[in-house]
Amino acid sequence: MVKLIIDTDPGIDDAMAIFYAAAAPDIDLLGLTTIFGNVTTATATRNALRLLEAAGLDVPVASGATAPLVLPPFKPSSHVHGDEGFGDIPAAEPKGKPLEEDAADFLCRMAREHKGELVVCPIGPLTNIALAMQRDPEFIENVKSIVVMGGSLEEGGNITPHAEANIYHDPHAADVVCQGGEKVVFVGLDVTHRILCTAEDFESIAAKSPELGGMLQEMSYFYLKFYLEVAGKNGCSLHDPAAVIACTHPELFGMRDVPLEVSCGGETSGATLAAPDSGRDPVKVCMTVEADRVKSLFLKRLTLLP
Ligand code: BDR
Ligand code: CA
Question: N or C: which end of the chain has fewer CB within 10 A?
Answer without folding.
Answer: N
